[in-house]
Design brief:
Number of helices: 9
Strand order of the largest sheet: 1-2
Shape: globular
Structural class: mainly alpha
Largest sheet: 2 strands, antiparallel
Helix content: 40-55%
Distance between the termini: 42 Å
Number of domains: 1
Radius of gyration: 18 Å
Strand content: 5-15%
Number of strands: 2
């Protein structure tokens, strides 16, 4: 399920946490995870995890018996839940911990989704923290990060434009710019990377 979503040295902890997650799914969905996956780079390694999981959340029954790292892993896994309230609950718990850098992909990914209450909660917590590690991660994944920014805008346009008609004051924009480090220069850097990849591809075909 999530063995590729964390550093290899956490494999035993990940296995233990996964073993505690119930097989029962929300609304009796036949699969416990989506086929669609999310991939990032972190410290030159590929981080890969399901876009959604459908397992019910009964973690209150056993979370007190977990180590701190195992709790972080659990919160990361359930941040991919199909239930928005479950995602918010576990992300909130994660953000209030002294979370490790390996949790950052899960924090960033959830913020390009459609639940504005999660964006508000995340911004309220992160604005008081040092987010330089998150900014470094976003820069390491510049193409995906820019896509996430565009995705956040599309959800604003679709669902929240009437309520938050000034995009410059929208919480998603503030979160991405102030806490994640988005800027026009990053977009320019992304475009430059794309052009370089295109030139390299054309050059390889010519040769």
């Amino acid at each position: 399920m999530f063995q590729d979503g964390f550093p290899k040295y956490l494999r035993d902890d990940v296995t233990n946490v996964i073993g505690l997650i119930p097989k029962q799914t929300n609304n009796h969905v036949t699969l416990d995870e989506s086929q669609e996956t999310i991939e990032y780079f972190q410290d030159e390694n590929v981080i890969k995890f399901p876009y959604r999981i459908y397992n019910i959340d009964n973690s209150d029954r056993f979370i007190d018996n977990l180590s701190v790292q195992q709790k972080m892993i659990l919160h990361c896994i359930y941040s991919r839940s199909c239930d928005g309230l479950v995602r918010q609950k576990h992300l909130n718990s994660l953000l209030l911990m002294d979370y490790e850098d390996w949790a950052i992909p899960y924090i960033v990914k959830i913020c390009d989704e459609y639940v504005v209450e999660i964006l508000e909660m995340t911004y309220d917590i992160l604005k008081e923290q040092d987010t330089e590690p998150i900014k470094r991660f976003c820069f390491e994944n510049i193409d995906l990060f820019c896509k996430s920014y565009s995705r956040m805008i599309s959800y604003w346009n679709e669902y929240y434009r009437n309520k938050y008609n000034n995009f410059h004051q929208y919480i998603g924009r503030k979160l991405f710019r102030e806490c994640f480090g988005y800027s026009r220069s990053i977009e320019s850097k992304k475009d430059k990377n794309l052009r370089n990849k295109t030139y390299l591809s054309i050059g390889a075909r010519i040769q």
